[in-house]
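tool=predict chain=A
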Amino acid sequence: MKKFFPAILFIAIVSIIFLGGCVQDNPNPNDLSKTVEVGDTVKVEYRGTLADGSVFDSSARIGKPLEFAAGKGQMIKGFDNAVLGMDLNSEKNITIKPEDAYGNPDPSLIIQVAKEKISDFNKLTIGMTVSSPQAGNGVVKSIDANFATIDFNPSLAGKTLNFWIKVVSIVKKTSPAQ
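tool=predict ok
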């Protein structure tokens, strides 16, 4: 038996190497199961910054990856388009112009509200966020004796946004109708 042990050991090692090579993952470049397509539910880690480098949002802030259906309009257009075609665990940096993000400021969303229409008019301060059932959230821009000027544009309107994105999960859509 001692004479055959080295030969058996050699055959066992070669077999393990050969069989191990036979079962390894052989990535198929046409395999879309790990690529984001329209309708897939994805989770991404991200960090959004402005031109000056200040961070305005991140997945770290919310404590978990952001989940959404890709290409379904749940995100701003530039972000939505950026994830399409990304592979699982891939990362990218993108720049989104205002027209593909929150748009340019709309002057019609900057309104003067009469003192009589604001219950706590005397408590208003410049920069304060206020809410309106009709217009949503706005920021007080100026106050005089009779009016408050409030900007109801999104805070990121008119800004170019930079994002770092990493795809951490892809759940493929289940049917073409989704």
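The chain is about 15% helix and 30% strand. Confidence is low (pLDDT under 50) at residues 4-10, 12-30.
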